[in-house]
Design brief:
heterodimer; A: 154 residues; B: 67 residues; mainly alpha; globular
């Protein structure tokens, strides 16, 4: 009498789609088990052997944040108090940080126009500005301003 | 010749009195700007000075009336 075992047993628990591990197969070999079935006789085993011979790619590792020493990120920032090759801090000429304040800037930068240019501006426009004081309904505030300009060039 | 409300001299009056006489070098070029209206100019002055417009006296500017 022949033994009644071996071969495909469709009622076996491994073929029950509802019979899955709660841990998702954690702790197994890590090799996918495609469970080839339905191919012609003899090919299922060959396909499984072929799949077993090709190792799965390793799971991607989480990207670690860049360290402070990496160039191009935080590591490239120059502190305000760091001395430059000329011996002056990078904050030299600014009203905060190390070094001199804005008084060290050239006058042309600290003031958009120097005094002589301002006086030239008054001299150029004053005749027309004076004539405008004679316009009817010229406000007193305007006349006071023109008098101020006249005092600047006297 | 009449005093034009939206003219150069009116602009200069408002800018010089609002910014301060000592800032005439800034007031003159600002008065040369072709402002769309006296209200636009006054809103600009109030924005940079954070105060009401000074000068003139012929009219009172009400910023709440500007949309």
């Amino acid at each position: 009498m022949a033994e009644n075992r071996g071969g495909l047993r469709p009622t076996a628990p491994q073929y029950n789609p509802a019979n899955v591990s709660a841990t998702g197969g954690n702790g197994q070999s890590g090799q996918a088990n495609p469970g080839y079935t339905g191919f012609p006789y003899g090919q299922n085993g060959q396909l499984e052997a072929q799949a077993a011979s090709a190792p799965m790619a390793a799971a991607p590792k989480p990207v670690s944040p860049p360290s402070a020493g990496m160039p191009g990120m935080g590591g490239a920032v120059t502190p305000l108090d760091e001395l430059q090759p000329d011996g002056r801090p990078i904050s030299d000429g600014v009203d905060f940080g190390a070094g001199r304040g804005s008084e060290a800037l050239p006058p042309r930068i600290s003031s958009p126009m120097n005094q002589s240019e301002n006086l030239d501006l008054i001299k150029r426009y004053l005749p027309d500005l004076l004539n405008a004081t004679r316009i009817p309904n010229a406000p007193d505030s305007y006349k006071r301003f023109v008098n101020y300009l006249r005092e600047q060039i006297l | 010749m009449q005093w034009l409300e939206n003219g150069f001299f009116d602009h200069l009056d408002k800018f010089a009195n609002s910014l301060g006489y000592e800032h005439y070098a800034i007031a003159i070029p600002l008065a040369m700007v072709k402002w769309k209206s006296p209200e636009d100019r006054d809103v600009f002055i109030m924005t940079i000075t954070n105060q009401d417009v000074k000068g003139g006296g012929n009219r009172d500017f009400n910023p709440l009336a500007v949309n």
